[in-house]
Amino acid sequence: MKKVAPITALFLDIGGVLLNDGWSHQSREMAAMVFNLDLAEINHRHQLTVETYEVDKLTLKEYLSLVVFYREQSFSRIEFQKFMFEQSKPHPHPRMIKLIRKLKTQYGLKICVVSNEGRELNEYRIRKFKLDGFVDSFISSCFVHVRKPDAEIFQLALDITQAPARHIVYIENTPMFVQIAEGLGIRSILHTDYKSTCEKLASFGLEVTE
Q1: 164 and 130 fall within a common domain
Q2: Inter-residue contact 121 to 18 (CB < 8 Å)
């Protein structure tokens, strides 16, 4: 019988796993309502610029100049940015963060974030939710200048953590990104809810004891 390699590291997405998506369609829809913006135009401009912003080739100020402040507005950049940051919440509540903290302590795991986010939002979310208190490495698109679905971002995570793919579990809420990680030999969990993720982690030998 083939022995299953033990898990020594967890790779995690932030948006949709630990926290909600930082600047999702729902957040932009709410911003359009609060600030009386044209949602279709905002979404169109967002789609044209988001990849460039997330690989750190646009600052948040430059991104907002193209997406929101391309015309004179009745509100300030500070007001809008504050609203934008305030949309970040634990996903769906703090249980996932608590789970990962417990797993790290209980099994001595390396924790590595692999995430697509713009620099200012990413740094805010790391500080706000104290992610650096349990995450060892942040392979964020804004820091490494490559983003999912490019497999290179996963290879960077492997290189930086020095964890063999067979000893890693990756938790991700986007099916395509799960497929890419599995193509590199990384066992992966498509995260849909807390309970099913706990069950899948247990099947890999990672069961939290209360």
Answers
A1: yes
A2: no
